[in-house]
Specification:
The relative contact order is 0.15. The N and C termini lie far apart (42 Å). This protein has six helices and eleven strands. The longest helix is centred in the first third of the chain and has 17 residues. By secondary structure, it is an alpha+beta fold. This is Probable RNA 2'-phosphotransferase.
Length: 180
Amino acid sequence: MNEKQQKTISKFLSLILRHSPETINLQLDENGWADVQELLAKAAQHGQRFSLEELENIVASSDKQRFAFNETHTRIRANQGHSITVDLGLSPQVPPEYLYHGTVNDFLESIQQEGLLKMSRQHLHLSIDKATAEKVGSRRGRPVILTINSGQMHRDGLQFFLSENGVWLTDHVPARYIQL
């Protein structure tokens, strides 16, 4: 499988496992897990043919580690980024003192007024380092990196979670915790 095919399948998996499993009539359980064989069969019925070996390669080689298998590789799910309600079974964690978020100038006025909002996603995503935040922000243009005073947020009672692939998650970052 070439890189272009891998990217196409990865985008398909993101759609199905994070946003719209009904697109291929796939059932996710309450924790976001899907049966791998059912995924492969229903994907093929909708023109997305790939093998278990190719799926395992995509999960293992993804730079963002968006997906995970269970221990027996019979079930798969997205690690975070859901716009559908799933319980990832994450426990609240103490975040580092500062986390980062990449955005673009167009959103700064709104962010300064309302803070960072999760929008249609289940959680807001924050990065441990500026380089990752810059990569995320650059998807929409010239990135602006926001520094989040996550340590103070936590001390003030706001919760943070850490996904399996190292993305920090929270529900909202009020404007007072954001440094431009």
